[in-house]
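B., you asked whether I could sanity-check this one before it goes into the benchmark set. Here's the sequence:
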Amino acid sequence: MRIPTGVLTFVFLLALVFTGSRGQEAEKEFDPFSEEAAEALRALQEEEKAENELRFLEPGQVQKLTKLAKPSLVTVRQLGRDGKSRGTGSGFIIDAKGLIVTNLHVIGEGRPIEIELSDGTVMSVEEIRAWDRRYDLAVIKVDPGARKLEPLSIGDSSKISQGQLIVGFGAPQGLEFSVVAGVVSAIRKLDPGFIGEGETPDYPMLQLAMPIEQGNSGGPILNLDGEVLGVVTLRHRVTENLGFAVLSSDLKAILDKPNPVLMSRWRTIGVLDKRQWTEVMGAEWSQRGGVITARQMGDGFGGRALCLSTREVPQEPYEVAVRVRLDDESGAAGLAFAADGGDKHYGFYPSGGKIRLTRFEGADVYSWSILEQLEAPSYLPGEWNELRVRVEKETITGWVNDEQLFSITDEGLRGGKVGLCKFRNTKADFRGFQVAKEIGVEKMSAEDRKRLSERIAQFLEEENVEDTLAELSHEGGKGRQLLLERADELEALADKLRTLESQVHRQVVINELTMALDRPETEIDLFEIGLQLARIDDVELDLDHYRRSFSRLVSDAREHLEKHALEAGAKQKVQALRDFLFEENGFHGSRTEYYHHANSYVNHVLDDREGLPISLSVIFIEMARRLQIEGVYGAPLPGKFMVGLDYEEEGKDRTVFVDVFDSGRLVSRSGAAREIWGLLGSAPGKEAFEAATAREIAVRMLRNLVDIEINHRRTPGGAADYIELLLAIEPNAAQERFQRALLRIQDDNMDGARADLDWLLEHRPPGIDYSRLEIFRGTLAPRE
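And here's what the prediction gave me:
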């Protein structure tokens, strides 16, 4: 038996990382310039190079390209609720039937879109033909009718050369159809943080030495033959003459595998569920991943806007809470309560570094009363902070992060709705909204606090600060040395406590996953299984939000089936479900990031409509179960999981397979076998066509995650949690138990490693060369 390659190379790769880090640090010591200064210098050099190169681009060539491109250029507008433009970008026609390329951030989510042709004709978008978050690309479709559209040709970005002359087109600042000449500086993958924290793409881009302005996003970059080499996506945050474009090869990948969504469906993505929330006084409210985000100025005085929950509010006393995070502490956003749906309500929110309680009784500041404005030591600027208020008949009490700030008497407003509020041009995120008679705050028991305090006291004895300071200051370096030693001890203790917290979280997930699987097979909720697997990497995962989101998706699918396959058989219902998911809602197989964790997590599949064969199958199978479509199961084909369907037709039993990774294409058993032969070079066995249990599906999903860490990321330690989950639900998994033994050896946990190897030698599950395992076990330590 061989140790997996990823594990063998782990130490070597680690050595390489540390060697590289030392080299970079040494070089930085001798560099008199900061990174920002160096980057600015490089940008200036590229601008100078561009100016020199452009001397050889004749005006006639630019005019010729402009004449060629102008009929294909469009201005893309994202419309607000009032029908007015709330954002403008660029785009270009690639198909005479109405396909137009732009950026995903230009069209946004949940908003109607219109395009304007070069002659001023305005058209509404009827479909999002393809979209990709990673590449920030969108392909939209209009209906040209009898009109003849003139498309641009997509070129081959693999043939781009450094220093190549190019021309870009766009609509900067909303001014339609501008043209600018430039040069290709490079094709490069940008360093993390180059554009901005969390904003830098992680794939190679076309670097442009040319002016890039707001509104150019989505415009084409053409070579001198008039072919599209890239799509303008972003500019450098410091200089306007340094921009970046997505390569045409990445655009082609999206076009080859579209994920169409009708506008009627697109306008629901990222939009608050009107059954749960009511927006008041404008602003832009969206929801993704259980987080509600507020942007833009509200229509009320001071940019005020509300988002009121439709949940029933208990009679006083009651409590309402939410966690909020502001992008700028000069802004203001938080809780609203006792709201009449108009101008009257209370607001409890951070503002300008302080915490306010305000009573709003009208449209302007003259009818507002600031009841409290306090410093809150417990408030963490830039972080998630929990706000909670308790409303009683005569009093209002407020907490920030479980620290009580005030309890005042005020009977001005009662009854009404509760929800969220924002002011000014604040961008704020909200999560974990609650309203109840009493919101339970989990507090540490006296026993737990005493036990942990005693543990900590073992490392740090309480001292009188003034006496200690006086004594240590007379000891010179000895006092500092002792303090540093104690600080190291505390840091080590903190690491141990964090490790324990991580282990506790993992065990909670194991317990929930085991309970979810410990049911009759027909009652197991596969989506819940998927959520629990996703939870291992996301402590903050909002389970209830995704449960509700999936239930709404099922409800919408039920309406679709009632309309299109009410009295139909199982095959027709499966086809209707396929059409609902892949043709109307844009679910699709991952095009470019196959080995990304998000593809294995059903919450991300729900958000991005993108996944692996098995994660898309989990969505499909569970929806079919809830829709009571008989005969649907998971087919564990090696290399490509599919959905199987056993049904009866013309008195005969038949089977068909749904390739969810390929837009729900239906394939026969022989067709599925041929596809697996093409992928792996061997035919699948009989068991590959039999129904997989929920436990087997969970194990396969976890094995995918283990494979990503060990064989693709080359980070075996990152697979530890997945292996623990897998062994908890499948103790006989020989490969994973051996992998855990290796990881324990790397962590110097020799007792744990020996225990795993001894278990394997005692139980001898298939798949291992036990003669070699005996030899390997003997190298560790003698048995007792």
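One thing to flag: DSSP finds 21 helices and 34 strands in the chain. Otherwise nothing jumped out at me.
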